[in-house]
Amino acid sequence: MKSLFKVTLLATTMALALNAPLTMAADAAPAQKAAEQAPKNAAFKNDDQQSAYALGASLGRYMENSLKEQEKLGIALDKTQLIAGVQDAFAGKSKLSDQEIEQTLQSFEGRVKGAAQAKMEKDAKENATKGEAFAAKFAKEKGVKKTETGLLYKVEKTGTGDAPKDSDTVVVNYKGTLIDGSEFDNSYTRGEPLSFRLDGVIPGWTEGLKQVKKGGKIKLVIPPNLAYGKNGVPGIPANSTLVFDVELLDIKPAAKAEAPAAAPAEGAAKQQ
């Protein structure tokens, strides 16, 4: 098994080695001009020195950030030993054999994974407890309703026409936050509404948007089992209760009859 650090360092080295030649081949003149305009630092005798230092600084920042992330998991690596390992490797006098390095890094990777799993389970338990407390408080607000699944919602504007069905495509603007107010998604700031089939999203949305009609606005408080559950997704921790402010802009009913799979291709051919 390749270690976490070896894979990362290999990827970094390959990117540095391959990216420049490809850029030059694609558009040599602009790349050469950019190189000529690169800032010169008096602390370095030539470009090679400055480039070497920049590479070292980049790797150093990466390792510093990695150490901080590991500290969050309860793993405190000795920075002095890390630097000593780099220096010894360059000097060709490593205190560990290649086999010992590989075994040590494999063991370390296992520790990191174990600590990350333990932290995730701890956070998931805490998030569930905090989410339940938040939902209980929200449920007491005027106008809030709760469904059998545990979804909480408050209709701020009903809208007009018919409510969307599972097979309909809806167009919405929305803002999504965690219970502490941290925003993880916002179509308003992107400047582009989201369009999707109602039964193709998390259950909390599928159920919640049926409570309003075109032009309606609703606040949803979605428990983990109707959102991303105990695993979570990037930006949304495990067992998170989610809060959404949603505006239903449009409803596009599904076709009354589904055409055979080959029909669209046949139709396109006829049009040509």
TrEMBL record:
<feature type="signal peptide">
    <location>
        <begin position="1"/>
        <end position="25"/>
    </location>
</feature>
<comment type="function">
    <text>PPIases accelerate the folding of proteins. It catalyzes the cis-trans isomerization of proline imidic peptide bonds in oligopeptides.</text>
</comment>
<dbReference type="GO" id="GO:0003755">
    <property type="term" value="F:peptidyl-prolyl cis-trans isomerase activity"/>
</dbReference>
<dbReference type="GO" id="GO:0006457">
    <property type="term" value="P:protein folding"/>
</dbReference>
<dbReference type="InterPro" id="IPR036944">
    <property type="entry name" value="PPIase_FKBP_N_sf"/>
</dbReference>
<dbReference type="InterPro" id="IPR000774">
    <property type="entry name" value="PPIase_FKBP_N"/>
</dbReference>
<dbReference type="Pfam" id="PF01346">
    <property type="entry name" value="FKBP_N"/>
</dbReference>
<keyword id="KW-0413">Isomerase</keyword>
<protein>
    <recommendedName>
        <fullName>Peptidyl-prolyl cis-trans isomerase</fullName>
        <ecNumber>5.2.1.8</ecNumber>
    </recommendedName>
</protein>
<dbReference type="InterPro" id="IPR001179">
    <property type="entry name" value="PPIase_FKBP_dom"/>
</dbReference>
<dbReference type="Pfam" id="PF00254">
    <property type="entry name" value="FKBP_C"/>
</dbReference>
<feature type="domain" description="PPIase FKBP-type">
    <location>
        <begin position="167"/>
        <end position="252"/>
    </location>
</feature>
<keyword id="KW-0697">Rotamase</keyword>
<comment type="similarity">
    <text>Belongs to the FKBP-type PPIase family.</text>
</comment>
<keyword id="KW-0732">Signal</keyword>
<dbReference type="InterPro" id="IPR046357">
    <property type="entry name" value="PPIase_dom_sf"/>
</dbReference>
